[in-house]
Write a structure and sequence with these properties.
Helix content: 25-40%
Distance between the termini: 28 Å
Structural class: alpha+beta
Largest sheet: 11 strands, antiparallel
Radius of gyration: 32 Å
Number of strands: 19
Strand content: 25-35%
Length: 480
C-alpha cells in the first residue's frame, strides 16, 4: 500500500516539475531563441549556403507584365479636352535575373555583384503581340519641348522642324519599339546639332543589361544586414535629391530580406526604377502554398506630398518638380525627361490626377505593390511590384502644338513585376517551417504531458480513496 502511495505521489511531483519547467520555457522562449539563433547563422550570403544559392539564382519564375493606355481622342486633347484612354495588355515577359560577377569583399562581410535582367516574350500569357500599335504621348518630342521651353528662338525652330516632319505631342508606336527602343526621327534630326542618342524606348538598353554595380552586406556580423545594399555604383548615397534623407540608399533590392521579421518593423528597399529608397509596413497575415507569411505594403505616406510627410521635401528639387501625393517626379535622374512615376491608375494619388483622365479606375487588389514574406526565413513567398510611367504635359509658348493642351499628368503605361514561390522551393521551406514549429512547441508539449500526469494523479487518488472506503464498508457493524 505504501509503495502504491509512493508511486501516486511521484506522479504528482513529476507533473508539477513538468508544468513548472514548461511554463518557464514558454516565458523564457528558450526554444524560439534557439531556432532564431540557428536561422541567423544559416541565412547569410556565404558561398555554399542555401541562402546564397537562392540569392544568386532565384528559383521561382519572375514575370514582367506591361499594360499600355491607348489614347482614343488625341485630336480633342490637342484642343483642350480631357484624354480618354483604354488599357491594353498585358504584354508578358519572363524575367531572368541571376547575380553575376560575384566577388567576396572585406573578409566575407560584403559581396559585390551585378544583376543583369533579360526579358523573353511569353505569347500565351499575353493579350496581343509586340507588333500591336498604341497611340500615346510622344516622349522624345515632349522631352525636347521641355528642354527648350526657356529658349524661344530655338524652340520655334524646333517647332517648325516638328511640323515639317509631322511629329506631334502624340504618336502611334509598336509596343515592341516603345518598350525596347527605336530610332526616333526628331532625335535623329537634332543629333546633327546636339550630341544625343537618337534612339528611345521605355526599357531601351535594359534587356540583358544591369542597372548598376552593387555591394551587398552578407549578414555575417548582423542578421539585419543580410543582402542590404551598402553601395550602388560605388556610392553609399544618391546625389539627385536635395536632402540627405531623400538621398539615402536603404535596404535591399527588394528580392531578399533578412530573417526573423516582425510585424512592427519597416522593410526598406532601394529601387533604381524610382531613383530612391522606400519602405513597406505590415498589413496582414497571409498563406501562400500553405506557407505562413506577412504581407508588407508601402504606406500612403511614402509618396505623400510634403504637407503630409515633410520627409519628402527633398524630392521637390525645384518648385517645377513638386507634385501631389501619390506621385514622384524623376526627371532629375532621367536626363530631364518629364517622367512622373505613380502606382497604376493613380492608386493612392490625389483624386485630381484620376479625374484628369477618362479611363482611370484604381483598385487596391490590382494596383497595389505588395510583398508576402515568410517571417522566419525572410524568403519571398509572393510579390508584385506595380509602377506606372506618366508624362507631364503643359502648354509651352514656343511650341504651337501645345497651345490648347491641358496641364496634366498623362499615363503612358504600367508594369506588374510578379513572382510566386515555386512548388519545389515551397516544399523545402515547408520542411524548415515544420521542424521549427515542432521545436518551438516543445514547451507546450511538456506542459501537455504535465497536465495529463495531473489528470492521472487525480484519477489514482480517487481510485485509492475508493478502495479504502470499500474496505471499510466490508467490516461488520458489530464485533462478535
Amino acid at each position: 500500500m505504501r509503495l502504491k502511495s509512493c508511486c501516486v505521489y511521484s506522479v504528482a511531483v513529476v507533473c508539477i516539475l513538468l508544468l513548472i519547467g514548461g511554463i518557464a520555457m514558454v516565458l523564457s522562449q528558450v526554444f524560439q531563441k534557439l531556432i532564431n539563433s540557428r536561422v541567423k547563422q544559416e541565412i547569410v550570403l556565404v558561398n555554399g549556403t542555401e541562402a546564397f544559392s537562392v540569392w544568386q539564382n532565384p528559383p521561382p519564375p519572375v514575370y514582367m507584365q506591361f499594360y499600355f493606355f491607348n489614347l482614343t481622342n488625341h485630336a480633342e486633347v490637342l484642343d483642350g479636352a480631357k484624354p480618354s484612354v483604354v488599357q491594353i495588355g498585358p504584354y508578358t515577359y519572363r524575367e531572368y535575373r541571376s547575380m553575376e560577377e560575384v566577388k567576396v569583399l572585406e573578409n566575407g562581410t560584403k559581396v559585390a555583384a551585378i544583376n543583369p535582367k533579360t526579358y523573353v516574350f511569353v505569347p500565351n500569357m499575353s493579350r496581343g503581340s509586340e507588333d500591336d500599335l498604341v497611340r500615346t504621348a510622344n516622349i522624345p518630342a515632349v522631352t525636347v519641348m521641355e528642354k527648350f521651353q526657356d529658349h524661344p528662338l530655338i524652340g520655334r525652330l524646333i517647332a517648325d522642324l516638328m511640323r515639317s516632319m509631322s511629329v506631334g505631342v502624340f504618336g502611334t508606336f509598336r509596343v515592341g519599339d516603345l518598350l525596347w527602343g527605336y530610332e526616333d526621327p526628331l532625335l535623329k534630326a537634332l543629333k546633327i546639332f546636339v550630341p544625343l542618342d537618337d534612339h528611345f524606348g521605355l526599357f531601351y538598353k535594359r534587356n540583358g543589361t544591369s542597372d548598376g554595380d552593387y555591394e551587398f552586406l552578407t549578414g555575417t556580423q548582423n542578421y539585419f544586414d543580410f543582402a542590404r545594399i551598402d553601395k550602388w555604383n560605388g556610392q553609399s548615397s544618391l546625389n539627385w535629391w536635395s536632402t540627405d534623407y531623400c538621398n539615402m540608399i536603404n535596404g535591399t533590392d527588394g528580392a531578399s530580406f533578412h530573417p526573423i521579421i516582425t510585424k512592427t518593423e519597416k522593410l526598406y528597399m532601394f529601387s533604381t526604377d524610382l531613383c530612391r529608397s522606400l519602405y513597406a509596413v505590415y498589413e496582414s497575415d497571409v498563406s501562400v502554398r500553405g506557407l505562413p507569411g506577412f504581407r508588407f505594403v508601402p504606406p500612403r505616406e511614402v509618396f505623400a506630398n510634403i504637407t503630409i510627410n515633410p520627409d519628402n521635401a527633398g524630392f521637390c528639387v525645384t518648385n517645377d518638380t513638386c507634385v501631389g501625393s501619390g506621385l514622384l517626379n524623376i526627371s532629375v535622374c532621367k536626363e530631364g525627361a518629364p517622367i512622373i512615376m505613380s502606382s497604376p491608375h493613380f492608386y493612392q494619388a490625389d483624386d485630381k490626377y484620376i479625374q484628369d483622365v477618362y479611363g482611370m479606375n484604381p483598385r487596391k487588389e490590382e494596383h497595389e505593390t505588395a510583398i508576402d514574406i515568410n517571417p522566419l526565413t525572410g524568403l519571398l513567398l509572393q510579390a508584385a511590384k506595380r509602377l506606372q510611367v506618366n508624362v507631364f504635359l503643359q502648354q509651352i509658348s514656343a511650341f504651337s502644338q501645345t497651345e490648347k493642351i491641358r496641364t496634366l499628368v498623362y499615363p503612358v503605361m504600367y508594369i506588374n513585376e510578379s513572382v510566386v514561390i515555386d512548388e519545389e522551393s515551397a516544399e523545402k521551406l515547408q520542411v524548415v517551417v515544420t521542424k521549427a514549429n515542432v521545436v518551438i512547441n516543445i514547451p507546450f508539449i511538456v506542459i501537455g504531458v504535465g497536465i495529463l500526469l495531473g489528470v492521472a494523479f487525480i484519477v489514482l487518488i480517487c481510485h485509492q480513496k475508493g478502495q479504502e472506503s470499500s474496505a471499510a464498508e466490508r467490516q461488520p457493524l458489530l464485533a462478535s
